[in-house]
TrEMBL record:
Residues 365-392 form a coiled coil. The keyword Transmembrane helix applies. It is found in: Cell membrane. This is Two-component system sensor histidine kinase YesM. The keyword Cytoplasm does not apply. InterPro entries: Bact_2-comp_sensor_kinase, dCache_1, HAMP_dom, HATPase_C_sf, HATPase_dom, Sig_transdc_His_kin_internal. GO terms for cellular component: plasma membrane. It holds the Pfam family dCache_1. It comes from the Bacteria. One of its GO terms (molecular function) is phosphorelay sensor kinase activity.
Amino acid sequence: MGKLLRYFANQPLKVKLLCFFLPLIICSVGLTGVLSYLFAEKQLRDNAYYLLRDTAYQTNLFLNDRFATMFEQLYNIENDPAIQNMILNRYSPESKQKYLDLIGLNDRLNEIYRRYPKIIDSIYIYLDNGHEFSLMNDSIAVREGIRLEEWLRRYRGSPKGYYWLNDHRDRIFETFEERRVLSCFKLIGTPASKVKGLVILNLKSDHFLEILRNIRVSAHGYLALISPDGLLLSKNAAPRYRLSRAALAGLRDRAGADGGYERRNPSGEKLFIVYNTITMNQWRIAAVVPERDLLAEAGRIKTTSLAIILVLSLISAGLALVFAGNIATSVKYLSEQVKRVEAGDFDTQFLIAEQNEVGILAKGLTSLVNTVKQLLRKVREEQEQKRQIELLALQSQINPHFLYNTLSSIKHLIEMNENGRAAKMVGALTKFFMIGISKGKEVITVAEEIEHIRNYLLILQMRYSQDFDFELAVNEEIADCKIIKLTLQPLVENSIYHGIKNKPEKGIIRVSGYRAGRHAVIEVYDDGAGMTEARLAELRQSLAAPEVAEHPMTFGLRNVNERLRLHFGPDYGLDIFSEPGRYTRILVRLPFPEQRQEENE
């Protein structure tokens, strides 16, 4: 008997199932038939609920991403300097700024339109002080315009003036063919404001309808995008499957961000509804499925299950009852170990001595758990390092004291009637921040970074004209090389505040650049106070240390070094040389493009 048990213990899992469990099926034919059908029906319901919930959730994420992107464009348009100038009417009669603003605004709106041609239908801006702007490329408008007082009267209650409209006929641009749009808009001012206006993005209803139609719910089910002002359905459902007005109102007012429930419509059809709330505008995305769709397979499953049970019962012959404990023990053990892993115990081992499929599965699970544990540890370490570096990068880009002091200097120059110098400083400050922002790009050219530093040094030189001079001499050969934005500013800032400021006489800052083999090198030199050997060693050690230093001087330098190494590789970064009372030199090593190198050679 023992040999027989060991023989079957090493048999394939398929053989064990056939031999162990068929007798149990014979003893439970009647009960199993009923329970299997009830279980199948319940399982179908549960699976349908989870599937619908996941469908609504995934659709919600996708739509929320689209709405958030469009809201970001609306916010950028509203806060565009040109719009603000128009609202405040900052133009003098002889100034050309108004035309420059209009040209710039037109370029930016066209850029937004070109970036999202499948989503944006049209853009319209209206101010009651005489400024109006519209953009619609897909159709020709017969008439365009709004009655601002009507909009201000109709839409109230939003603290910041932002509103969303569901699917509707466009009421701003009248075209030969009716166009359906969704709208995101901002009301400027109130009926009592001196300047009132509207900024609106019309979004193509067909784009969002296509998103809903591409998601199949069931044969008669559909998706509904529900808002206080309207409804967008993925398909034209039959009347018996539609939600009544009361059901729609109840769904809008339902508590909680998501959920599911059953409801009968006026025709008596039982509908299963799962909904999710879109964070961006608090609209509801709902999946509506008739109960008959959920249970369409239940009858067939019932018949098939009973037939299979009867056939298996005839050939089982009582063998499975003897060996059921063996297979149950292994499966139960694996299940318990899996539950421990689900609970977070990644030290769990799957120790199965059998050499069949269960044993192979146990070894695979052990290997998988060990791999997941290693990956989780690696991800946590990488995420923590990335978080610290990104935090430092963000901190190093924002220097409110520099902006405050520069604006104070401009004000002082204006009060002294030195308008030429004030204008020069304003121009330098504008270029400084334009390159600093650089349309959100993280990597720019060396030429752009040098121009950024030129404006930075020009501003500081005008503020501290007696403290230092500066020279910029960068070889054109490396002008197009790539560099991480805001690499040189912290280095120049250290040269001024830790080098030149500590020198009694006037100093000089020299920024030069040249090619050195396969590297591009930018050198920041100052003839300031320099550093002692101990301080230089401490600084170099801080740059190489794995932990982030918090010393004021090494804070920015380490941040620059880590950003360069993470982006370009460990062969690139900063080298520092200094002699007390004489100089400090910081070398920035960058990759020289191979294609450019071959052309030069």
